[in-house]
Amino acid sequence: MEAYQLLLTLRAVRHFTDQPVPEESLARILQAARWTGSAKNTQPWQFVVVRQRETLRLLAGFGSYASHLAGAPLGIVVATPPGYALFDAGRVTQNMMLAAWADGVGSCIASFHDEALARALLGIPEGFLAHTAISFGYPQPDAPETIEGKPRVEVLASLGRRALDELVHWEHW
Amino acid sequence: MEAYQLLLTLRAVRHFTDQPVPEESLARILQAARWTGSAKNTQPWQFVVVRQRETLRLLAGFGSYASHLAGAPLGIVVATPPGYALFDAGRVTQNMMLAAWADGVGSCIASFHDEALARALLGIPEGFLAHTAISFGYPQPDAPETIEGKPRVEVLASLGRRALDELVHWEHW
Predict the structure, then answer these.
(1) ipTM of the complex model
(2) Domain extents for chain B?
(3) What CATH number should be reported for the domain whose range is B3-146?
(4) B48 has which bridge partners?
(5) Beta bridge partners of residue B76, listed in sequence order
(6) A131: which chain B residues are within 8 Å (Cβ-Cβ)?
(7) Per CATH, which fold does A3-145 belong to?
(8) Which residue of B lies nearest to A27 if distances are taken between CA atoms?
(9) pLDDT, tens digit, for every residue of B154-170?
(10) Cut 0.90: pTM above it
(11) Residue A122 contacts by C-beta under 8 Å, 6 or more apart in sequence?
C-alpha cells in the first residue's frame, strides 16, 4: 500500500478471524514500536505480547470497551510511566497499528479503566501504568457494525470525521 | 517510499532549508491528522498552522528544546483538552509527521513547558492545552549534529534505540 494511503485508511477493527498473526508481521509491529521517536529519546515504553486465550479474556474485562481483546489472536499491552509519556505511548501505538495495517492486519485500542488489575495479572512493576492494550488480527468479513452489542452511534462521540475547517486555524485561533 | 520503511525511517529533523512546505504537502499532513483515530472518535484536537516568522520565533521561546521552530518554514500547534487526550495527541502527531516524511518533509516535536504563553499568543481558548508544536521543513544538508548547540549525547536520554529484548515481554513481564 502507498504510505500516505496507509495513514488515511487505518480504522479500528474489533472483530477478527481465527487466523494467527504471522511471526513476520509481529516482528515488523515490534520493530516499528522500537524505532518510534520519543521525548529526548527516553523510549519510555515496555510491551507485553499476549497470545494465551485465557489472558486475553481476562484483559478484556479490565476496560469498558475492551471486549475485542477476548476474540483477538494477539494483544500487545503498552506500559509507560505516569505523566507526559502518555503522549509517546500514543505515538508508539499509532506506529504499531500502522505497521500491522501495512500487512493487512487490523487492530483496535483498549483503554483499561482498571489498569492496576492488568499490571497485577501481567507482573508489570511499580513505576509503570498498563493503561493500553492493542488487539491485532485479520478483519472478520461481515463483522457486526455494533460496538459491545450497541449501535456505533450510541457509543462513539461522532461518526466519520469532522471537516478540516472545524479543526484547523490559520496563524491564530 | 514503502509504507513500512516510512515507519522505520522517521527521525527528528531540527534544521531546515528555507524552502517552503508545498501547499499540497500541508494539505496531506492535515488530512492525515483529520483521519487519525481517537478514543470513542472524540477527535479531541485542534490545530493552529503557523508560517509567520515572528510567531514561530516567539513559540520557539516557550520550550527548553523548541528553538527549531524559529528556523522552520511551518509549525503546527496541537491543542487538546487536559487528561487522557494526551494519548490521542501523540497518535495525531505521529500521523502528521509520517505524512510529511512520505513527501520528504522532515519534522521535530517541541513540548511547551510554558503552554499558557502559547495559548495566549495564539488565542487558544480555555479547555485546551497547547502542549505541543511540530516544526516542518525540508532537511538542511550538513546540519549540525548538535541539539541547542550541545552534543546530542548531553541532551538525549540515549542514542539509537534499545534492543527488542529490553522492551518486549512474552505473556508475562
Answers:
(1) 0.97
(2) 3-146
(3) 3.40.109.10
(4) A169, B77
(5) B49, B134
(6) 87
(7) NADH Oxidase (3.40.109)
(8) B164
(9) 889 888 999 999 999 99
(10) yes
(11) A48, A50, A55, A77, A130, B169, B172, B173
